[in-house]
Design brief:
two-stranded antiparallel sheet, Rossmann fold, 3 domains, about 325 residues, Arc Repressor Mutant, subunit A, alpha/beta
């Protein structure tokens, strides 16, 4: 089927079942693919939308490297637009999703797991949104791996615009994916379709930090429908940002606290350990390191726990931060994943 056919069909924003019926009928020659007003499998409104689809945006996206990638999974659309190369979609893939308003702990976890997956040749799939999504994409790229950014708009549209640099990097180390027509802007209902496509493209799904009502919970539900294994990182029981995550664990999702557990559960080979060992260059730094973890702590709390003076703690933290072992946030200090 031609790119023009797919541009018109995906522009209708029709449900997946009607997309598939239209595709099957056109492929069988029941109506001409270049005459959308005759596509009887669509509603009258959808036929009108198809007939008036923006072919200029399609031309621009194709010149920019976009290609069509047909799918063989009737739980999703028959095809998606990909920019530039869909080959990373044929690898083992880990979906990494979570809240936009992630904690420092959640962001560190996303970095740890995404880097580990990418370093083993696993494609990191996520939705390009603020928070956990973007952090996972960036971590995969920084690890030298590949990432697939699933967009709620055309592959030629930067949404959110502040992630333009991320999308550019993903084009070089992975791809942008969308079930939308080229040139299509984001609409609220498309976000749910984006979540479904993340689940469709993932061999396993990791929920990093999900409060009640989080869109990542809908992604998890869609993954369950497809039989995709769900892994969840636990968080502090007092934090509302993990209420949805903990509910998934109670309902049967697999709790994980290190990347190797996903590889072992999935039967994926991993040739190098994802664990990182850290040691301070002196006794004071080593003592400070022993008090740190993924959750940020204030310098005062570290001093109380280690019985070190404030000056010694701050000096050690400064050196560890310079060395890239520790990260500082408004909440305090934590180990860099």
């Amino acid at each position: 089927m031609s790119p023009e056919f797919w541009q018109r069909l995906l522009a209708t924003d029709a449900p997946n079942d009607r997309l598939w019926r239209t595709y099957d009928s056109a492929r069988a020659g029941l109506f001409p693919e270049d005459s959308p007003l005759l596509w009887e499998t669509l509603t009258e409104r959808e036929r009108q939308v198809a007939a008036s689809a923006d072919l200029r945006s399609l031309d621009g996206a194709l010149k920019d490297g976009a290609v069509l990638h047909e799918l063989d999974d009737r739980n999703g659309p028959p095809a998606v637009f990909v920019n530039p190369d869909p080959s990373c979609l044929n690898r083992q893939s880990l979906g990494v999703v979570g809240t936009r308003g992630a904690s420092s702990y959640g962001l560190n976890v996303a970095i740890t797991f995404a880097k580990a997956a990418a370093s083993q040749g696993v494609t990191v799939v996520s939705g390009g949104a603020l928070g956990i999504d973007a952090t996972a994409h960036r971590a995969a790229i920084e690890a030298g791996g590949q990432t697939a950014v699933v967009l709620p708009c055309g592959v030629d549209v930067d949404y959110p615009s502040r992630h333009r640099d991320l999308f550019l990097a993903a084009r070089h180390q992975g791809c942008l994916v969308s079930r939308c027509a080229c040139g299509a802007k984001t609409q609220d209902h498309v976000l749910m379709q984006r979540n479904r496509l993340v689940a469709q493209l993932s061999d396993a799904l990791l929920i990093v930090e999900a409060p009640d009502g989080s869109g990542s919970l809908s992604t998890a539900a869609m993954a369950v429908e497809r039989g995709v294994p769900i892994f969840v990182v636990p968080g502090p029981v007092s934090e509302r940002g993990f209420k949805g995550s903990h509910r998934l664990i109670r309902e049967g999702a697999t709790l994980v606290d290190e990347p190797e557990q996903i590889f072992e559960a999935m039967g994926w080979q991993h040739t190098v350990s994802c664990r990182q060992t850290r040691a301070g260059s002196n006794d004071t730094e080593s003592t400070v390191l022993s008090a740190l973890g993924g959750m940020p702590k204030s310098a005062e709390a570290i001093g109380t726990e280690t019985q070190l003076g404030a000056g010694a703690v701050l000096s050690a933290l400064t050196m560890l931060e310079i060395e890239g072992i520790v990260v500082k946030s408004p909440e305090g200090y934590a180990l860099r994943p």
